[in-house]
Write the structure tokens for this entry.
Amino acid sequence: MRLHQLFTIAAVSMSFMTGSAIAQDDKANKQAEIRKVTQASLEKFYKVEPKIKGEVSKAPGYAVFTTYGLSFLIGGAGGKGLVHDRSTKKDVFMEMAQANIGAQVGASESETLIIFETAKGMNEFVAKGWEFGGGGGIGAGAAGKTAGGQSGGNAIPKAKYYTLTKNGLQIGGAVAGTKFWKDDTLN
């Protein structure tokens, strides 16, 4: 009977260790994918507006998010991204969600770049992660190309904010609230 219990305990222990290793591999794969998407997004921003590369290289840090959204008067979007701290060379993986209300109709995939002007502003963004904004415009994109423009305000202090529409169409104006927060599973 004792040998049976010993084998059971060993089997359970092995399954926990294997599960933990698989979870770590999955976490590393997800982090690598977000880093890859971030780099591809940065290249797109640099191609559209070359001066952005200089702004990013001089900034204490930046954030890049890929979002997917749908709106018809009331809408929302969600996505993932990271904040890169240039001085520590570390990434903080984050999530975002947005809710909006207004005369806006559409579905889109977008990329957002936030260039922080101060380390304090970047650290507050990571810690608090809140933005509120409103705006309007017409934007369309397909196969990674963007047409049209958007305007509006945001409340990320000491930061520049850029958005590219990858796929989809958005038209109208809305008031939106956006929340950014640390991704507990990837940090």
About this structure: The chain has three helices and five strands. The mean pLDDT is 76. The longest helix spans residues 2-48.
